[in-house]
Amino acid sequence: MMRAWIQLVIAIGVEIVGTSLLKLSAGFKHPLVGILGMLLYGLAIFSFSLALRKIPLSIGYAIWAGVGTAVTGLIGIWAFGEVLTGLKTLGFMAIIMGVVLLNKPLKAPQTAPTTSRTARWRTRYNR
């Protein structure tokens, strides 16, 4: 299970670097930088798919999207001179709260009834 979380961290980090490179490509005026950014997106998705073998989709995606969005926003402020407004600060706080809430179940998780097709799918793809 720890390996899945490491894969998720790698996916987030690689996506953040890829996004920053796409910004630096200036709309592909610097095509090699843009291509490298796109390749990193592919690597991020691959790493994310490995993480999803063990991490539930709703939790994994919430963390990936939330942390990626927040860190990318902070990079925009720090590296690209974007302005941190009160509304952006509220948005960052909402992202963090959303990720926290999705990771805290209110009651015990319920398992869906297993049909033969569902069982085959789980056996095939959740190794």
Automatic annotation (TrEMBL):
Subcellular localization, as worded in the UniProt entry: Cell membrane
Coiled coil spans: none
SUPFAM superfamilies (alphabetical): Multidrug resistance efflux transporter EmrE
Transmembrane segments: 32-52, 59-80, 86-103
Molecular functions per Gene Ontology: transmembrane transporter activity
Keyword match Phosphoprotein: no
One GO cellular component, as annotated: plasma membrane
This protein's UniProt keywords: Cell membrane, Membrane, Transmembrane, Transmembrane helix, Transport
Membrane-related topology note: Multi-pass membrane protein
Keyword Membrane: yes
Protein family per UniProt: Belongs to the drug/metabolite transporter (DMT) superfamily. Small multidrug resistance (SMR) (TC 2.A.7.1) family.
Descriptive protein name: QacE family quaternary ammonium compound efflux SMR transporter
Organism per entry: Lactiplantibacillus pentosus (Lactobacillus pentosus)
